[in-house]
Amino acid sequence: MVLIGNEPIMYPELERIEALFIKYLRGDLEEAEQSELDGYMEQYPALKKLFEQIQEDPFLQTDLRIFSKMPARFREAADLPPVSAAPAKPKITFKRMRFNPSRAAAVLIVLMVSLAAATYLIRSWNEQPVSGEAINSDYDNDVPSGSNKAVLTLADGRDILLDDSTTGLLASQSSSKIIKPDNGLLVYKPGSGEELREETVYNTIRTPRGGKYTITLPDGSKAWLNSSSSLRFPVRFDSNERVVEAEGEVYFDVAENREKPFRVKLREEVMVEVLGTEFNVSAYEGEQIKATLAVGKVQVSAYGKHVSLLPGQQARLAQAEGDLSVLNVNLLTEIAWKKGFFYFEEAPLETIMKSVARWYDVEVEYRQPIERTFNILMLSRDLPVSRLLKMMELTGHVKFNIEGRRIIVMK
Q: Which fold has domain 147-333?
């Protein structure tokens, strides 16, 4: 676990490695899971060495398999993940060997040390500085990550390039102050009194491909814009509702105000309505419209149909039929980008590469279709694109080349 600001962030990749090891010890790894574990061992030599040691000693395999089936209250003392209640399928007959708790405990210590080493390697992989340095890569060239970039368009048509502007007061509009307190953050401070009778005017913030930005709206709500996204909003909310318009992908943390509901308009007549909550909307052109709830409760409407969401649920619009469906999702797959990570779980390559294209501002060319799905768990978005591509190449199911700002996908 690491801290982003004051918030704890877990490393699901490490948890996944532990879970795969336990399944291996229990003898019920599926073929795809074995390939995944092989990929991790290629990436983290400490794990590969441990795996080889266990393979060479059948007694240790037996001890650890028995330990992996112990009740949770005993396993918790070793800080191992819970295991399935499904019966194990050991390759070694337990009757021939006696369970040796001390041997199992010793190996478990080695396991924890190795996994701690993996944690260090994962963090080093994610945190190694790359800006301004030569990037070692197997590719002809590399592409740096996106950054804080956006353009603010005022009501009078003026554009302010936020990545180049200095911090401090940027403009005053309808008695509201537009302030950039830090790089990547824009804050609106509304006026009060006589000026509230002035006509409401709108501003729009847009992020390009390879850009992201955070804005605090006049009511105190915060919005995080992913790349290729936009948000249109009034410089003050002075009616009985708070209405904004979003395109692309935006995460909202809405300031509670029960007298003024907060509404987000998306394309295809989709509307998300809340009072005070946190949620993510994704409405890229040509892609499915999705609204995912993290905290609180929201209502999603489209074409006269309405659905309510609970935390961990997602509303999706089937554009051809105009139907709204609700399903449970892994929140990390939807909002990890807001924390600065890639997180894909059993995701089609095309889905991953669409996100890559937007964040790294690259084009993607497919030489052959790739039908496999991939896992990329909590990889920092601050890394150059080669790091992400190399992780997928470890599976053996895909190869990449980088030509300028074009990524070639091959088998």
A: Jelly Rolls (2.60.120)
